[in-house]
Amino acid sequence: MDTVLGKTDKLGRTLMHEHLTIDLSAKKDADANLNDDEAMIEDMETLKAHGIDTIVDVTNLGMGRDIARMIAISERSGINVVAATGFYKTTFFPKMVYEKNVEELSTFMINEIVNGIDKTEIKARIIGEIGTSQDAFTNEEKKVFQAAAYAHKITGVPITTHTTLGKLGLKQIELFEKNGVDLEKVIIGHVDLNPDIDYYFKVLEKGCYIGFDTIGKNSYQPDTLRASNLCKLIERGYASRIVLSLDITRKSQLKKYGGYGRSYILESFVPMLLRNGINQKDIDMMMIENPRRVFGGR
Ligand SMILES: [Zn+2]
């Protein structure tokens, strides 16, 4: 198959936490179902025109992952898409998470990494997004994290996490440490939803990456705060441990539906960083070098 999907050797400028076909609507909240592929292709084409080469699609089983649509969106827009394996968090887990043990769940992930997803040749190149609930790390979530740790140790692929409102990242790290995960292959996601900058430093001191990956979600945290916190982190020498993304999960966030669209990151957010004194070299580090390093490239 002639597809750009799944290349990790030439990532280029990369958004590390996105979704092309997510469906968290539970059949009630129609906005939380990204099912307008034409709108998505437009969004990807605009991104491409702004110089984004790759998106990492962290949609997994139970979240509406749809490999056939992912391939079509990638091929039609020319965006390289990296696929993921894993299970999201409690209330969104497929039955399998409750029925199978750690070893069986890790075998499932390893199969998607080594052989391909849903009988296609598209292989998962990252485990994620695997998550914790807001104030609880449930037993099923711990099971998924243990399975992810094992699959990571066998395959060497990185792990990217979901923290609800940026919380419990340190608990996630604790479990990874106990299970022998290489923390330099871990991205703790959504930390930019947590306003506590000391927490960022505690996570970073462990050696993992953090995701400033909800850029544009001003109702949670204003982007002006994201920008000033990024300045402080970069001043302390952490540019090499931060990755950027928007985590668009709703139709209303796309331009076709009146939203800001993913290109917002280059149209508005990066210019804001430059105005705040962050230089282009650091922006390229976060958007090009760090993704390449996470996926094992030099
Ligand atoms: Zn998430």
Automatic annotation (TrEMBL):
Alphabetical keyword list:
Hydrolase, Metal-binding
Whether Hydrolase counts among this entry's keywords is: yes
Cofactor names from the entry are:
a divalent metal cation
**Annotated positions binding a divalent metal cation 2:** E129, H162, H190
Q: Name one Pfam family in it.
A: PTE
Quick check: keyword Hydrolase in the entry? yes
The cofactor note from the UniProt entry for this protein is: Binds 2 divalent metal cations per subunit.
In this chain, a divalent metal cation 1 is annotated as bound at H17, H19, E129, D247
Matches recorded under InterPro entries: AryldialkylPase_Zn-BS, Metal_Hydrolase, Phosphotriesterase
Give any GO molecular function from the UniProt entry. zinc ion binding
Q: Which family does it belong to?
A: Belongs to the metallo-dependent hydrolases superfamily. Phosphotriesterase family.
Name under which the protein is recorded: Putative hydrolase
Lineage in the entry?
Bacteria, Bacillati, Bacillota, Clostridia, Thermosediminibacterales
